[in-house]
Amino acid sequence: MSGLRNFNENDIPTMLSLSNKHMEFDQLTEVLLREKILEDPAYNPDLVFLYEINGEMIGYIAGVTRDIRGEKIGYVKLMVVAQPYRRQGYGTELYHALEDKFKELGMEKVRVYDVPFNYFMPGIDPRYTPALAFFETMGFERFGDTSNLTVDLLNQTFDTQEEEKQLLGQGIEIRRANYEDREALLEFIHEHFDLWRYEVLNAYNSLPIAIHIAIHQGKIKAFSAHNGNNFGTGWFGPMGTHPDLRGKGIGSILLKRCLQDMKDWGLEKSIIPWVGPIRFYSYYVNAMVERVFWRYEKKI
Q: Which residues, 6 or more positions from 68, have their beta carbon under 8 angstroms from its beta carbon?
């Protein structure tokens, strides 16, 4: 049989093989692919399409929807077409099948890869130049860019004991979060950083808990987390500090505590994804820009 069909869980191994053979700059594991598709908080099998020719999978597209501050957005989360079958219309069929579903669901626009909560890449790496050309042909327009930074964990130390003592003298305690902190932390995040709730909840699944917090006058005022997305790959974030306590060095301490966790796990580097303040990470932990991503959207 040939043509489009919907996804089922048994397709994961074939999708993994296809991805790793035809994504030149990335490698997935089965655990990671399952996380991106099956473990998405809004997973919908009707938004994942495969294309087969004579029973052989030659491409797939995985979509997901989000309601972001009242705006309904559909996302292309992953898309792969085998190189011998590109520029023959198969990718177009896959994309149009997904876009039609987005329209049925009332989505207002479509974006590519930069999916809040659960994403593999925060945009298109421009080295995937055929992908840029494809989405521009589909009517997408570039609206911004972002970067992933990397931190060398082996050749620097992340000790923060002296800085923490100084903050303690100001009534600010820094420590690892525990299960008793969970509700208070989620309340803090809901008030100030609501889009990060899902990743913080995921960070609670690590042992030890992959979250560090700052407490002032009995209330959580800052946090940092890691391993909340792309599990086991050294991804840092999210991190946030209440406006009242910014400028005191709390963020750098929380960052270093997370990096020390990853170093203790035996990782050689950490990835700081979807970065805004490059200067902050460069200054405190010698982070370097490793990859750049272009962000695209299309109104539908």
A: 116, 195
Q: What is the mean pLDDT of residues 42-52?
A: 97
Mean per-residue pLDDT, 161-173 = 97
- ω before 238 within 30° of 0 (cis)? yes
Which listed CATH number (3.40.630.40, 3.40.630.30, 3.40.50.620, 3.30.470.20) goes with 3-145?
Answer: 3.40.630.30
61, 95 contact by CB (below 8 A): yes
pTM beyond cutoff 0.90: yes
Segment 256-285 shows an average pLDDT of 96
As a dihedral over the C-alpha atoms of residue 13, residue 15, residue 18, residue 22, rounded to 10 degrees, the angle is: -130
Contacts by residues 177-185 (CB-CB < 8 Å, ≥ 24 positions apart): 177/204, 177/209, 177/211, 177/212, 177/213, 177/223, 178/209, 179/204, 179/209, 181/213, 181/220, 184/219, 184/220, 185/211, 185/213, 185/220, 185/223
Res. 122 pLDDT band, cuts 50 70 90: very high
Q: Do the domains 3-145 and 154-267 sit in the same CATH topology, yes or no?
A: yes
The CATH number fitting domain 154-267, selected from 3.20.10.10, 3.60.20.10, 3.40.630.30, 1.20.1050.40: 3.40.630.30
Q: Looking at residue 277, what is its pLDDT?
A: 82
Domain locations in the chain as residue ranges: 3-145, 154-267
The SS3 call for residue 166 is helix
pLDDT at 114 (0 to 100): 96
* Cα separation, 300 vs 281, whole angstroms: 37
What's the rounded mean pLDDT across residues 169-188? 97
pLDDT, residue 157, reads 95
